[in-house]
Amino acid sequence: INHSSMSAPPPLQPSPSLRARILDILKNPEARPSAVRFGYHVSGTYNVNDPESGGGSNGAAIYLHEQRDDPANKGLADDMISRVDQLRLTEPDVSRADVCALFGALAVKDMGGPEIPVRMGRQDYWVEGTAHAKFKGIEVEGPPTASAHLPAASGDAAHLRDVFNRQGFGDRDIVVLSGGHSVGRCHIERSGYDGAWTENPTEFDNSYFTNLVNLTWKPREWDGPLQYTDEETGTLLMLPTDMALLTDPEFRKHVDRYAKDCDGFFADFADAYARVLELGCPWSSQ
């Protein structure tokens, strides 16, 4: 699917009424962290080496059963799609794909994080609910699955680079986007993992990085998959992919910097997450 001929629309923040409506739909304390994660899951199927594959935030592919029911999206997709549909009852002119992006961007800001610039103009050509859809009258194959393109929590540094490089991101981006773990938590019924990364999982700050650096982490003794807990309180979580940021020397440089510099983290996160939300968009150069 070639979108390269379309010029980039200007960054557009939603009107005050649309912003208020979105935040009201996301008013549940756990909904806003989920919206941030959802924004990445919707977009992260993009492959910079195969831009015609149909991945990315354009098209609302998350509505397809192939993505909606993917184990990587278990629980998350159904919850957030119901909220997207709720918003569009009163805002039918805003595409589902744009709403998904707006949910993530506004949730970051509302939890105390940086402003994320958002461009509008995504289309909903995957919403037919089958493995095929028509784009500009041309039959195209369904998009790639989420499990094959999103990072696995059990992965190491090489796995993270493989996944994020395919999306067009480098080491700094990998680390700063991992900082989204400052909000939210893992749910056993969804991922098999359990717990939150920070003490205040609805407050967007750099505590994920300060916890990584300043706390002592050990494997949790339990019947579930390998995850880590802090020796100091025994209540917090780190996944193998989180620990890879500590043990890889190139990743560690960025971890240490963000643990000391919250403003720098915010600036770099705003830049990287805005690019996440534009993966596969008509105007994107990635």
Automatic annotation (TrEMBL):
EC number annotated for this UniProt entry: 1.11.1.11
UniProt cross-references to SUPFAM superfamilies, sorted A to Z: Heme-dependent peroxidases
Gene Ontology terms: biological process: cellular response to oxidative stress; hydrogen peroxide catabolic process; response to reactive oxygen species
Cofactor(s) of this protein: heme b
Enzyme class: oxidoreductase
Pfam families: peroxidase (PF00141)
Keyword check for Oxidoreductase: yes
GO molecular function: heme binding; L-ascorbate peroxidase activity; metal ion binding
Plant heme peroxidase family profile domain segment(s): 76-286
UniProt xrefs under InterPro entries: Ccp1-like, Haem_peroxidase, Haem_peroxidase_sf, Peroxidase_I, Peroxidases_heam-ligand_BS
Keywords assigned by UniProt, alphabetized: Heme, Iron, Metal-binding, Oxidoreductase, Peroxidase
Family label: Belongs to the peroxidase family. Ascorbate peroxidase subfamily.
Protein name, as recorded: L-ascorbate peroxidase
